[in-house]
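In full, the data.
>
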Amino acid sequence: QYGVFWPCPEPEHPGTPRLFTNGTFYHPDGRAKFHVVEYRPPAEDVDAEYPICLTTGRVVSQYLSGTQTRRIGPLVQQYPEPLLEIHPTLAATLGLQTGDRVRVSSRRGSMTLACQVVKTIRPDTVFIPYHWPEERSANRLTIRALDPISKIPEFKVCAVRLEKVAEP
């Protein structure tokens, strides 16, 4: 009914939904190991010109670039286009309501999309899903800075500004 959770040590095993419930971990001393890493701030921080933090990510009905999931009608109906998620406090400051069109600009580009007021995001941050191409691609805004160790692009955070725009 809910799937099978790894590990499954034998074919008939029902799965292990939660590991380490007895408080013992797979180390000689039985304790969990944490590795502290030094914090590195993002390559681009907010400032007076771009005062809002943008983060990008997934929505449940789409996957990666959406080339497959955007072809499935019921999934498209759940989230037909990218929306800017914005906290009620920031939305009120900018005079925005759910459905209003917003121009989101960074040092690299801009895009216009509808906003959705949600309480699930910080008041100083906005969110755009990354599943759409071309003019609707959130990565038109993101920074191309690379992590110095992994060389993974820093697509998850950059500074932006917002401007309410008239309906098309």
